[in-house]
Amino acid sequence: MLWSAVVLWHRRDPGRPPTLQEWDAASVCKCVKEVHIRCQIGNDIQELNKKLDTIIPVIQQLGLAAEDQSGIDSEVAPHYNESNTIGRGVGSDCNDLVNLLRRGGEGAHVLFAIVGTIGVGKSTLALKIYHEMRGRFRTRLWVNISNDSRRITIWSGDTFKRRAGMAEQREVLRRYLDGSTSNLLLVIDNVRKADDWNQLLAANEAFRRCGCKVIVTTRDENVERKMGVTHFHRVKCLNGDDGWLLLHKTANLGGTVATGNIQDVGRSIVQKCSGVPMAIRTIGWNLRGRSREDEWESIHSQDFISSYPGIRDTIDTTYMELKYRVKRCFLYCSLYPEQFVIKQQCATQQWIAEGFFEGSPDLEEAAESCYQELIERGLLLPEHEANGVVGAKMPTLLRSFALYRSGEENCVDNPSRISSTSKPWRLCITDEEAIEAIPVYVTRLRTLFVSASPLRRSSLDLIIERFPNLRVLDLRDTQVESIPKTLGRLLQLRYLNLSNTEIRKLPQSIGNLMMLQFLILQNCPYLTQMTSHVGRLENLRGLDFSGAPKLNDVRFRLLKLTELNCLHGFFPANHGWTLKELHVLRNLTSLQILRLGRASSIEDAHQSRLQEMDNLRELELCCSSVDQPPVDVQEHMKDVFSALRPPQSLFSLKLDGYYGNGFPAWFSVSHLTALQRLTLDGCVHCQRLPALGEMMNLKFLAIIGFSVLTEINYELRGAPATGVAFPLLEQLFLGRMQNMVSWSGLVDTDMPLLERLHLDGCPSMISVPSWLQHCTTLKSLKIHHADALQNIENLLALKELQVHHSSNLKRIFNLRRLEELEIVNCAHLDTVQDVPLLRLLHLDEPTAQLPEWLQKKQSFTLRRLEIIGSEDLLDRCSSPTARYGRLIKDAADHVYAKLHGGSLYFSYTKSTGMFDRSRRCRDRYGMQGAAILAVPVAPRRVHGGWETWIKYTLCAIFLIVSQFFVQWAVSSR
């Protein structure tokens, strides 16, 4: 048969003999070798089968049973692989933690935690640290806990020691710790419950005194908090660029340039994986051997949760640990669109309306606790802005899992696909036409999200008619203009959101919704009237109509709304509410008062009795806009604010547009003892700032719009009792300070915990405050629109620097720990010097030229360079022969060039020397279709005719004889 194959193969082209690339003598010998190896493997398998045949009767005789090993992880050994540490943050995070581990003496950290969501790379970071510290600690122990928390595996150094049950292994570790008279590094990987480990570590104080360190990895922040961790580090998901590198490497694309738009598809896959390395690797392995664009698109179109059990099961281990209520809240979050910022107040109100917390003594507190737990476990990722955390996003991968887990209950797809056997309870619609496509047998909806814009009156009528059992109706951003009277038929409705719509008023029938708990009317610019029937809704817990500038006719009173927990948009008026009506709302936790002005009564303000609202945690006081108030009006406003004295337990305070000629007397450290967040916005007539440095619990401070201030000095610091100003401050924001030139008055020990500083709109500031040089924890500095600023220098702890639209900035100097630098439209910047650790550089250039300083030889070695610019600029960088081609090849390990809209134009990888251009980039060069890849081709070898035929014939005969010999050897055995 083999001979026939040789002849047929040779005859496929009788005019050309086979080349050596197609079949040469070496390949023939290799085939013979493989035949021998396979024969030997077959014999070994037969021997094993014989042994098993003799063992099985013995097992049955002894009554032994197989043990379930599903809870034991397969990849738990501390074997370090540098290729797994893709990501700009891994090396930096490792260096920071290694430096802390090496630090000794009084006050040194002993117990560390690495926290992060599922599959994000916590163990990878711990492995890198474990490897880096092999010469620092005499004894290193790696302890891995199985996912079911039943077994522990221990390694000493890189050597496997033992695997056994939890109690037995803890006893082994106890002996290790008891006998540790020298330095020991203990890594406990995959900790899920803190209680057992607390007992072990607390009983071994000796190891804390002899230079021993403990690192734990966990998915839950509560674990590290209960264990008394002295320093914790949160691992972030990979960004798009790093995720693409990992996918490219795992898919084994090597040094080739992917054809078509594979990189675009790959980046979409990374986004669908939410930057989680575990998921990216799983998809990457499945992409091996697939190099066509249609193959990648086929993988991208799959549901990663249902198609890849490994990804699903990994997430499921965390999901199953959640309490029942937290599970319901997690699944509910899948209704929100992808990348939607889920605000805590919105989510918790909807969960309460759904009835998730019925029976709880404090509904809001229970709901907020679940929201925070989802963040602490990494199932929701907090979204930060200049004013702190504004909400959280559910990663795309986890959203897919939540939809999968919710089964028939939650539906976000085309409702026409709902089968007759399904019974969905919750539905999210993004297309108005989909409302009419909802099957008639879907009648039991409890929650309906409609984000279609616009929304016709007929569609709204259909919703009310079809779904009378709705509890949650969210119509925000729909541009609906009027609400029908039939709204009053939704007798079970508990949550109604009409924010960002064009409604003018609410129908009187809203008074029939006696079960309504939350009425949200944020940013309704045309809302002019509130019917008196709102005052009948005695179960209201949340009422918000902030952002309604035309609302002047408020006809309902607050007397019966004693259950109100949150009231935003309240304003006193001559023919409406008065401040004294607030005194009946003793359950308020959040209050916003708008339009305070000369008409506001001081007596009514006193009678509001805010100081007696013991539950009040958030207070916002906003004044009406006044250009040049006379002195008597300023005095009156100060008296009104003095009468609105909040309770001492206040957590967050915002003063907006305040035009009193001084701050009220209660605005002091002696009264606001628990204050943690403070925002002062637009206090234009205040000549000086109060002594905020004396507030011992303040963590966030924003000072905005103090246009009359030319400098901030020692008055802000005050005379703190401990001698340290702002001892707990972590975030500081200064904005719209047009005349501020400098900030002085702080000493070296002040702001010991400051991590982030944001300066926006300080055009007169000539230099960065000098006291920042002594802030050893300052990690991030953002400076926007600081036109007078010329130098940024000597910030020795800074790791991230962002400078936007600072036209006179000339020099960035002596930032010894700076790792990330972002420059946007700083035309006069000519020096970036003494930044030896710089690894990421982001440039947004409005011109068609790269900055001169980048073209000079630099002391830093970039891992990644990102360039945002026009096509003209990027064309000058996109090939080796282009104007900046040589600079691009030498600038960084990876270069990513994007247009101002955000789309990728080209990328470059130094290790392969390849430019990977987008279709748009290729089109500008006249290259249609796939990217051109130059592959070296060996010169064609000239073969003889009959001589070559005879050689291959002899090789075939040799193969046949070898095969007969192998068969004879097997049969003889």
UniProtKB/TrEMBL annotation:
GO terms for molecular function: ADP binding. Residues 108-238 form the AAA+ ATPase domain. InterPro entries: AAA+_ATPase, Apaf_helical, LRR_dom_sf, LRR_R13L4/SHOC2-like, NB-ARC, P-loop_NTPase, WHD_DRP. Keywords: Plant defense, Repeat. One of its GO terms (biological process) is defense response. Pfam families: LRR_14, NB-ARC, WHD_DRP. Gene3D superfamilies: Helical domain of apoptotic protease-activating factors (1.10.8.430), P-loop containing nucleotide triphosphate hydrolases (3.40.50.300), Ribonuclease Inhibitor (3.80.10.10). SUPFAM superfamilies: L domain-like (SSF52058), P-loop containing nucleoside triphosphate hydrolases (SSF52540). Coiled coil: none annotated. PANTHER family: DISEASE RESISTANCE PROTEIN RGA4, PLANT BROAD-SPECTRUM MILDEW RESISTANCE PROTEIN RPW8. This is AAA+ ATPase domain-containing protein. It comes from Triticum aestivum (Wheat).
